[in-house]
Amino acid sequence: MSAYHTRRTFAKRDLLPTHSNGPEKEDTIFHLSRKQLSLIVLVVQNSTLVLMMRYSRIIQRPDQSMYVASTAVFLAEVLKIIACLAVMYHQQGSWRDFRRMVQEDILAKPRDTLTMLIPSGLYALQNNLLYVALSNLEAATFQVTYQMKILSTALFSVLLLGRSLPRERWFALVLLMVGVTLVQSQSIQSEPSQSDEQSPIVGLLAVLTSCVSSGFAGCYFEKILKTSDTSMWVRNIQLGLSGAFFSLVGMIAYDREVIWAGGMLQGYDWLTWVVVMNQALGGLLVAIVVKYADNILKGFATSLSIIVSGIISFYLFDFQPTIPFVLGATTVMVSSYLYGIDFKTAIKPH
């Protein structure tokens, strides 16, 4: 076996959780366990991306133009590809083995990249819709409503992956819909007081479409990963290449005149670049830490992110939560927790 294939095998093993019958001393980072660190990372990533994206879409200097959202989505895909290539190079350890891996696993397999067209196109749509949603909804309202992706993911996991959901999880999904409905009642009722540039109805439609896109693309991508032994990093590069293509098409189709007049980077400042980097690298970082976090922990992370977004929105964006919003947000947090109980044993393939 060549050194390239040996390193590649070890690299794949490193991505999988290890199991041992005997007790092991858990490694700590900054005196935090892996689960504790995973919880912090998930909360920070979930909260900061939404809040910074919202802030970047509604706050500009008087002499600053609004950046074009489609360019931010395209640049995020490019940065994601670069990050995955950097990880692959680090794993291979030499330029020769890295170049051979790129040649054999990416360039020599165009059909594998073509299989990524469906999920990457949906992810590109989803990422553009997030900017539309956060241009029209408060960060806290978006954060709660976006949990509807749990429902879409559950439905597509039944349809595409052949899973079955117990009654407890269907009950949690019903609670989720009730909670989101209560939260959205605040946005719709407050629509007349919104500025002419913001429309809660448009924001709601953007969120719901994004949730459906996210659920289908996530289950489709999971099905592809489970039917091949290709490295996660290679798959993300293939996904990024297709996503960059769709994002570029979107830029040309819808924003070419604006970009031609003001340039691709018009309206960009440090916050815009942070948003782009968070969107590009945050997803990869979450994918790494999620293997240390069970679904209950992810449910807690979701709940904490909603609370953090609500508190910061109250101080930064003059967000005034109503009683229906508080009840709805609480219901969504409870449903997220209930949905995550006994995740590994509750959902079983047919």
Automatic annotation (TrEMBL):
Annotated family: Belongs to the nucleotide-sugar transporter family. SLC35A subfamily.
Name of the protein: UDP-galactose transporter
GO MF assignments: pyrimidine nucleotide-sugar transmembrane transporter activity
Gene Ontology CC terms: Golgi membrane
Keywords: Golgi apparatus, Membrane, Sugar transport, Transmembrane, Transmembrane helix, Transport
Membrane topology listed for this record: Multi-pass membrane protein
Primary location group: Golgi
Annotated InterPro entries: EmrE-like, Nuc_sug_transpt
Localization of this protein: Golgi apparatus membrane
Native species: Phycomyces blakesleeanus (strain ATCC 8743b / DSM 1359 / FGSC 10004 / NBRC 33097 / NRRL 1555)
Residues annotated as transmembrane: 67-89, 144-163, 170-189, 201-221, 233-254, 270-290, 297-317, 323-341
Pfam families: Nuc_sug_transp
